[in-house]
UniProtKB/TrEMBL annotation:
CDD domains: F-box_AtFBL13-like (cd22160). InterPro entries: F-box-like_dom_sf, F-box_AtFBL13-like, F-box_dom, F-box_SCFL_complex_component. This is Putative F-box domain, leucine-rich repeat domain, L domain-containing protein. Pfam families: F-box (PF00646). Residues 37-73 form the F-box domain.
Length: 154
C-alpha cells in the first residue's frame, strides 16, 4: 500500500461504519471498514474496559456518543500512578474520577486497585474511603498500595 498524506485523507463517521475517502487528483477511492468493537454488547465492552487502567478507560469517551459514559459503568477501577509524571497530577486525576463516579450515575464498584508510587495525600485517601463506604459499592476487593508497600488489602 502506498503512503497517503494526512491532508488527503478525510474521515467521515457513520453510525456503525467508517468510510475513509482518499482524494486523488484523478479519482476517489472508497474503503468501508465495519466497526465491530462498537457492535459488541455493553456487558462485553465493560468486561474488556475493566482490565484497563482508569486513565485509558476514561479516554474511550471520545470514541463516540455510545462510549461517552461507558467508563462510569465499569465495575472495576484501576488507578495507578505510574502513568503520571508527578504524584500531584495523579492525585488530581484520582480525585476527579472518584468525584465523578460519586456525583453522576455510575455502576456499583466491585473492585478498586489504587497504586500510588509516592506519598498518598490524606485527602485522596479520605476520598477513597468515602467512596468505598458509599451506597454505590459492593466491594469484593480493595487494594491500596503506597510508597512503602501495601497499605490496605481486603
Amino acid at each position: 500500500m502506498s503512503y497517503i498524506p494526512k491532508e488527503r485523507m478525510i474521515l467521515l463517521s457513520m453510525k456503525r461504519r467508517r468510510i475513509y475517502e482518499v482524494k486523488n487528483d484523478k479519482k476517489a477511492e472508497h474503503r468501508e471498514i465495519e466497526d465491530r468493537l462498537s457492535s459488541l454488547p455493553d456487558g462485553v465492552l465493560l468486561h474488556i474496559l475493566s482490565f484497563l487502567d482508569a486513565t485509558y478507560a476514561d479516554q474511550t469517551c471520545v470514541l463516540s456518543t455510545r462510549w461517552k459514559y461507558l467508563w462510569k459503568l465499569i465495575p472495576t477501577l484501576n488507578l495507578h500512578s505510574e502513568r503520571f509524571y508527578t504524584v500531584k497530577q495523579f492525585s488530581k486525576f484520582a480525585s476527579k474520577i472518584l468525584t465523578l463516579r460519586l456525583r453522576k450515575k455510575s455502576a456499583a464498584l466491585d473492585a478498586l486497585d489504587f497504586d500510588c508510587r509516592g506519598n498518598i495525600e490524606p485527602r485522596i485517601l479520605k476520598k477513597i474511603l468515602n467512596y468505598v463506604s458509599s451506597d454505590n459499592t459492593h466491594l469484593q476487593k480493595l487494594e491500596i498500595y503506597g510508597y512503602g508497600g501495601i497499605l490496605v488489602s481486603l
